[in-house]
Design goal:
The structure holds two protein chains of two kinds. Chain A is mostly helical. Chain A is 81% helix and 0% strand. Chain A starts with a helix and ends with a helix. Chain B has a four-stranded mixed sheet with strand order 2-1-4-7, with no helix packed on it. In chain B, strands 3-9-8 form a three-stranded mixed sheet, with no helix packed on it. Chain B has a two-stranded antiparallel sheet with strand order 5-6. Classes of the chains: A mainly alpha, B mainly beta.
Chain lengths: 173, 107
Amino acid sequence: MFVRLSAAVAAVGLLASPVFAQGAKPTDPQIAHIAYTAGVIDVTAAKQAIKKSKNKEVVAFAKDMVRDHEAVNKQALALVEKLKVTPEDNDTSRSLAKQAKDKLEELGKLKGAAYDKAYVANEVAYHKTVDGALQSVLIPSASNAELKGLLQTGLKIFEGHLQHAEHVAAELK
Amino acid sequence: MLPGCKSFAFLAAVVGATGSIPAHAETIRVSIDKLVFSPVNISAKVGDTIEWVNADILAHTATVKGDWDVTIPPKKTASYVLKKAGDVDYYCRFHPNMKGHIAVAPK
């Protein structure tokens, strides 16, 4: 599993440090925590964009991200409650959160068009990373069928976001 | 004559006079579940209504680039009356990986 985790990240090749390579096969409580954390990260980044950006399309995209990721996380919370699973913090979640915090600070220093471009470029990269992790690590590792199902729907949603982000990125050029 | 019959006769006269009720306009239902339009391909006529029933927790749209755009809120239904003949590809602006196709025949 360790090898597969590393391979997934290497294939995506976008993270500076190997976020998904630090543990053995994640358990369901860990997977739930990772997925939830990934959603919160994108909502936080989007809220920064809504505050900072003056670009209509960028703001609209950011609002879509807040709406979708909050809806998915609400469903994830309802599911873990139903399954009586307590999401468990882990190295992957911590690395994700740390990298996101650094990125948020980095983006916070930018302004105007430079900010817009960097935010959208990061959204493209971030969704690629998360989609890759879902596909190669999180979905195959999930043992509960309902959790697996939610992750599979999540993957479809985030693939949609990736295409949406790529579209916005192309418009900004 | 019963009062009901009278009003029916009146209605028939009005409809007959104006001819405004489309003879065969249909409502075609497309379900949205887990980011999939189903059926993905539909055939319709100008004047028909497409009704999207969104079972997802997410908002979606049915959008034809440069033409119409319908927002379908989560767990809600939204509809659109087809105005032009021709084949159209539509997609969801929020999740462009969701795609559908309508072959619209003239009235």
